Amino acid sequence: QVQLVESGGGLVQPGGSLRLSCACSGFTFSVYTMSWYRQAPGKERELAARIGPAGEIINIADSVKGRFTISRDNGKNTLYLQMNSLKPDDTAVYYCKASGYPVWGQGTQVTVST
Q1: Beta bridge pairs of residue 5
Q2: Largest Cα–Cα distance in the chain?
Q3: Distance (Å, rounded) from C-alpha 49 to C-alpha 60?
Q4: How is 10-53 classified by DSSP, letter by letter?
Q5: Which residue ranges of the chain lie beneath pLDDT 50?
Q6: Is 22:104 a contact under the CB 8 Å cutoff?
Q7: How many CA atoms lie within 13 Å of 68's alpha carbon, on the beta-carbon side?
C-alpha cells in the first residue's frame, strides 16, 4: 500500500533552516507529481510547493517563495523540502502527498520560535 513517511521537523529559531524528507513506497514514485502541504494550528491545510516527476517546479506558494526549495531523488523514492530563513508563521505540521492518491502521512512538526 501507499506509504508516506515525513521526517526532519523540529524546533528552530527564526532565521534558521530545516530540511524535511518524505520517504515514499507502494507506488511508482518517479512518475508522480509530489507536493508538500502544511497545516498551522487553527488553519486549513495549504499547499507549500509542488514538483513534477522529472524535478520541474510546478508551484511554490507566495508565502514561502525564495525561502523554500522542493526537490526529489527518484532513485531513493524520496521528496525533500529545504526551508531557509524560517519565520514563526512557518510553524505547522508538514505533509507530503502524491497527486492522485488520497493518502497522507503522519506529518512532521515544524516549530519556529525563540
Answers
A1: 23
A2: 41
A3: 4
A4: EEE-TT--EEEEEEEESS-GGGS-EEEEEE-TTS--EEEEEE-T
A5: none
A6: no
A7: 25
